[in-house]
Design a protein that fits this description.
The structure holds two protein chains of two kinds. By secondary structure, chain A is an all-alpha fold. Chain A is built from six helices and no strands. Chain B is mainly α. Classes of the chains: A mainly alpha, B mainly alpha.
Chain lengths: 159, 66
């Protein structure tokens, strides 16, 4: 009986895992198709505004639903090693050094971006946008950038 | 050395630092938190969660519409 019960749970877990993968693959395919379509629009046009407003609306709607109903697609943590969390790891001097590095690099990057943003000569002081504008010159590279932005939104929604 | 070169060199150093941190976090997951884990930690509070969402929205609008 115990074996049967365990087997049933395994089967259910497998079905759940398979369903997750199917949904994930479907969403990824939709994301790729949408990124290709949306990246064909030109900046400063109504088409670009509508194409970008749709994911924004979906994320806001998803976040509101999530806050009321819970997360339907939480990040899988089953196969990952146990963690002690940010606060717990702060006790480990080796981990603390890495966390300090994050704590320095992220604010420094933001400050460097802002410093360059407020300089008048964009050629002499390129910002992240300047680099990404270069990437956006081709349809395929803009589509990859757009897909990355969509995936980042999906990633954030699952947090 | 022009301002442009200095700016780009600093950007490259910052990017290398961020990529190194994330790579180390992936390799030593049990010790060093990755950017995703830090974001998760930051997004526990609704205020910061929505602030991160607004940042994502601004980024998309800034890159693809403006």
């Amino acid at each position: 009986m115990a074996v049967s019960s365990s087997g049933g749970r395994d089967h259910e877990g497998l079905r759940s895992g398979t369903a997750r993968r199917v949904v994930g693959a479907g969403l990824l395919a939709c994301g790729i198709a949408y990124a290709w379509f949306a990246s064909s629009t030109r900046s400063f046009t109504a088409g670009a505004e509508i194409a970008t407003a749709i994911p924004l609306g979906l994320l806001v709607g998803g976040a509101v639903l999530q806050s009321r109903l819970g997360n339907p697609f939480p990040i899988e943590r089953v196969d990952r090693p146990p963690r002690t969390g940010i606060v717990g790891r702060w006790q480990d001097p080796r981990a603390r050094a890495g966390m300090v590095a994050w704590g320095l690099l992220v604010p420094l990057s933001v400050m460097w971006e802002l410093f360059n943003y407020f300089q008048s000569d964009r050629h002499q002081h390129p910002t992240v946008s300047s680099f990404l504008d270069t990437v956006s010159l081709h349809h395929w590279s803009k589509a990859v950038l757009y897909l990355g932005w969509l995936l980042l939104g999906w990633f954030l929604l699952r947090r | 050395m022009t301002s442009r070169v200095i700016t780009i060199v600093v950007w490259v150093l910052l990017a290398a630092g961020l990529v190194s941190c994330q790579t180390l976090a992936i390799l030593r997951r049990d010790r060093l938190p990755g950017f995703g884990e830090i974001l998760t930690w930051v997004m526990r509070a609704p205020f910061w969660r929505w602030l991160v969402f607004i940042g994502w929205m601004w980024l998309g609008w800034h890159l693809f519409v403006r």
